[in-house]
Amino acid sequence: FSSSGAGGGRSNARFVKATEAVIAKLRTAWTLQRAYSFAPITARYSNDGDDADAADSADSDHSTRWVHRTPLLVYIYEGILLNVFDYDFSPSSEFAGRDSINMNVSAEGVDDLSDLQAMGFILRLKLATKQHFTTTSYQVLPAGVEALRRSMAVEDKMAVDRFLSHGVTLDSVELLRSAAPRPVFRSSTSRGSMPLMEYQPFDVRYADNTGEFTLVDSAGGERISTVTDFEDVSYVCSPYLPECLRDRGTNSREFSDFSSMAHLSAAGADTLRDVNTETVLLSGLRILSSQYLVNGPNEVNALNEKLSLHASREELRNGHAGLVSAHIDHSPSSPTFDVAMSGMCAIFPMDYVRSTMANFESKVYLPEDPGVVQLENFGIHVHSNGEVVFGVKVESVMSHVKDSLPVDLIARLVFDLHEDSASTLESISSAHQRLLMASLFKRREEAPGASGKPGGWSSLGGGGGGGAGGGSGSGGAAQENLYESSSIKMLQRSESLIGVGATGKKHPGGGNGGKGGGGGNGGGGGTGHDATPLSHTDSLTDNVVKSDIPTISSKYQFNMFTAFLVDSLEPAVAVDKLLDGEEAENDISQITGRVSAAADLPGGGVLVSGEKGLIVSGASGRKFEQLIVVHASVMSRRIFVSTFFHRLYEMESDIDSIQEAISCHIGKPSGLAEIRRRVMEACKQASLLDSLLTQAKATSADMPDISAATAAEGQSDPAYKVMLDTLQTPQFRSDLVLRLKDLESLLQCARLELQSLRENTDVISEMQMFKLQESLQSNTRNLESLFRSNESASSSLEIMQLVIGGSLAFSILDRVTGEWTLMDTSWGQAFFDNVIEPPGMWFFISLVCFISIVTGLHFVLRAMLKRASADMCMRYSLHVRISVQAMRRMLKRHTLFSEEADTDVEGNNMYKVSWEEPGDRYGGTPLKVEVSVDQGHARLCTLNLKYNRRDGKLSVPEVQDRFLMGLVNEGVIVDMAELGDLVRPPDLISPAERERVAEEARRSRERAHRLQAAAGKRNNTKVVTDRVRLDGGSSNGSIASSQRAA
Question: How many CB atoms lie within 10 A of CB 539?
């Protein structure tokens, strides 16, 4: 379908009728086997006589190839810009990569794809991604290839081929028409030897990190598509809210009226890239956008207090609340700070019911493209049940004032309104609300300009111009304040207001200036404050956009349900003719989404309901506004529940990936930390979703419902029953309650899976700890064996030193006495003759000497080992108060072995010292002492005692009591009560207890002797002797004593 009639409704209808007979024949002749992947891309021809041969020789490799819907929409968009397709496009939401994005989508192109499927030319396939999202793909059938071959003119084929070959590098229609297709020849695989000619299309690549589509052709050309850059139009809107949402109390005020400035939009510029058709026109348009925000009475009360904080009585009386921003003040105590004007909202309270609802007027400061006039103030209704309604009354769009507003332009206006309302919602909501709503979307790194915006601050621009306001007029002080940044001033000083954006430079990331860019021209300027409120520096913007505030506007702006209330709709025909499946229905679907129900209203007007909006024309729209508001609120909650449901699918995908990482953790020592981090993040998200669902269920009991007054008024009006049957609001409302209950069970299942993941990570930790313990035990055994060998070698070395010393003494004596021998004496000669001369006697004497010396050395070595193995080591961690002066006096009376001082910058002064206590106080054996003292805090930190039990006669409790009591008597320990039961005066120990302690010490020594005898060789045996608790456990100390016996 090319420019010769791809979008024309009448041409399409004639084409359908003309080809019905051909389709029937093709369906009979062909078996619908898949032969080609994508007909417009792989259209093959050489000459008229070889087309059939080329079709028969299709490569079987293409039989399983499908084309994703999103890249196909990008092809259609680029073809529209180059006049290859006669379609319109408008902003919409599509799935791309791992998430949904906002992009320009042609409703006519989507409709023609459905028509081709209905004709049997293409197939449509639904698949699920790894994240459990549904994708759509298409495949061309042989019948479609044959229909193109017979019905499509060669000129149209050449136009498509030129577009697919040079659409990346040639960006103008004239250059494209003069270019020749870039063919690629390949050998024929069937009849004949003529090579087949095909045209390699440019490739469409999507980058998840930037949210951009890149076009790459076969010659190496590359550029970024503008499919994610949105068009801006000039318009004037007045704030509006239905009377059913107002509270006409003493504090009620009237909204501003900008109808007197409707002519300003005609003088404004636009960034439209294509001429749009005007098929459906709306008159007297009022727009109500509803969305769900997790809310409650406390949040509404806090909002009312926030708007009235630090405002004088006069300001509150006139409805002045100042500016509100979502930026975090990280330095509230500093005298000044820097923050950009972009994204701020001017709030003007209208009426409120404390802790229940609040109505106010809002103006958002966002940058626009040069010359674009957008004068818009919202009427905003916030309720404690989570209902949020944004309302405007459209005064004019471009040159269309009040009436006959084209739907194509309204689609651009609605996109801007959704973006600005999301920014307002972000500013007035609390950090807790933003955190909960942001949990609906999987957190990823957002690159600058990902949504066609400069800078990367969600859907907010890199800076903010004053926007469109009004000049002069009446309406009170509040209205005059709203007119301060008027459209007249913008028209007079457009370049100065836009600032950086007026230069036409694009920000990094390909995003255009303004709210979504426009035609690649806008720069995305910035706004400062104080003396120059409409200019800024890049560094200031960088400081602002790097805030850690969770934002919801970039994702949530299309999660709204919009109601369009119009006085009249053109063409004024019945709904079955209006929804013709062609141009009129395609225009309507731009603002309502896919049409699900429609009806003619008695008394005039129509009702059209779609998946993301509805249109009501005639007097019934004003009469039953409360029904429309309730339906919009219910449908916005339905969108919220669907988003929540898909978020649970994403969480399930994350859980599966974590489980896969757990199963592959072996051989990755550092993988456990990453697994734990991912599990912790998943648990955090599950907790946030649980809180979000809990609050959603709590507010479901107060869900908006049709009032009794509206129901009573509708009893006498047949239009009410038609609207109720068409919208099915009560059914959707009851369905929401069931879906919320189902979400609770699904979330509980997800939490159970997370608990299983945590248990699996614990098992991994236990396995690693078990392996670590095994390794430590093996190393400990090796160290113990090495220690025993070293101890034996040390004892042997000590004996050898004695032997070598004796040998040295005899050698010195030999040198001093000279060549003296025993044979030089008479008694030596007699001893030799009588004792050594007999045969074998000298050998016997040598053997006796050898045995005597070896036996003596053996017993000496055993005695040394036995003495060394009888040492008891007692270690204490006390941290008791001491007197440093008394400690120094005591140390002066001892001979110190070692001293060590350790002082750091924090003032900690640690002192370690060791000495030996005399043996007369400890059963004849000296006691080796080592203490660690914190001199700065006067604390005795650690105490180590070493006592030889074999030489001494005291047990571990007795040594402990005597030494600690000595410290108490010396005045070193200030308060003996801090020692607890580690020390007791001798008069408190009964004779029976002493006898029992001595008996246990005797048994311990006997056990050591038995182990020594059973070993049969030198062996170190550790016998742990715990102190017998005489009157309870220790309060602040710990002791470990051991006896090593050979």
Answer: 9
Q: What are the residues whose beta carbons fall under 8 Å from the beta carbon of 873, sequence distance 6 or more?
A: 944, 945, 946, 1040, 1041, 1042
Strand ranges of the sheet holding 203-207, from the earlier edge strand across to the other edge:
203-207, 212-216, 222-224
Phi-psi region of 473 (alpha: psi -120 to 50; beta: other; left: phi over 0): left
User: What does the DSSP assignment read for 173-233?
Assistant: HHHHHHS---EEEE--SSSSSPPEEEEPPPEEEEETTTTEEEEE-TTS-EEE-STT-----
Q: Distance of alpha carbon 713 from its chain centroid, rounded?
A: 50
Task: Please give the pLDDT value at position 514.
Answer: 38
Polymer length in residues for the chain: 1046
Q: Which two tokens stand for residue 492?
A: 């007079």
Rounded Cα distance between 570 and 755, Å, is: 59
Cβ partners under 8 Å of residue 994, min gap 6: none
Rounded to 5, what percent of the chain is helix, strand, coil?
45, 20, 35
pLDDT value of residue 391: 93
DSSP code string of 24-70: HHHHHHS------S-TTTS---SSGGGHHHHHHT--GGGGG--EEHH
Contact 1027, 1039 (CB under 8 A): yes
Nearest C-alpha neighbor of 97 from the set 543, 442, 362: 442
Predicted TM-score (pTM) of the model is 0.65
In this predicted structure, what is the pLDDT of residue 614?
Answer: 93
CB-based contacts of 815, cutoff 8 Å, min separation 6: none
For the chain, the maximum distance between any two Cα atoms, rounded to a whole number of angstroms, is 158
pLDDT of residue 181: 66
| Summary count for the chain: helices (H), strands (E) | 30, 33
Residue 364 forms beta bridges with which residues?
345
Task: Give the whole-angstrom CA distance, residue 358 versus residue 248.
Answer: 12
Chain mean pLDDT for the chain: 75
User: 1016-1034 burial string, b = 16+ CB within 10 Å, else e?
Assistant: eebebbebebebeeeeeee
- 562 CB neighbour count, 10 Å cutoff: 24
Determine the Cα–Cα distance for residues 706 and 167; give it in Å rounded to an integer: 53
Residue 669 burial (CB count, 10 A): 9
Q: In a 10 Å sphere around its CB, with 0-12 CB exposed, 13-18 middle and 19+ buried, how is residue 20 labelled?
A: exposed
Structure tokens at 89: 């496009």
- Rounded Cα distance, 26 and 126, in Å: 25
In whole angstroms, what is the distance from residue 578 CA to residue 589 CA?
12
- Please, which pLDDT band fits residue 130 given cuts at 50, 70 and 90? confident
Question: Quick one: pLDDT at residue 559?
Answer: 74
d(CA 159, CA 343): 44
Q: Is the peptide bond before 926 cis (omega within 30 degrees of 0)?
A: no
- The structure tokens listed for 504 are 């036409």
Q: Which among 122, 198, 188 is positioned nearest to 157, based on CA atoms?
A: 198
Output the CA torsion sign for 31, 34, 39, 44. Answer: negative
Provide the pLDDT confidence category of residue 131 given band limits of 50, 70 and 90. confident
Tokens (6 digits) for 523: 């720069």
pLDDT at res. 447: 38
Within its chain, how far is the Cα of 964 from the centroid?
A: 59
Q: Residue 519: helix, strand or coil by DSSP? A: coil
CA–CA gap between residue 103 and residue 228 (Å, rounded) = 4
Contact 1040, 990 (CB under 8 A): no
Are residues 610 and 561 in contact, defined by beta-carbon separation less than 8 angstroms?
A: no
Task: Concatenate the DSSP letters of all residues of 446-487 into one string.
Answer: PPTTTTS-STTSTTS-SS----B---S--SHHHHHHHTSS-H
Look at residue 609 and give its three-state secondary structure.
strand
Other beta carbons within 10 Å of 780: 10
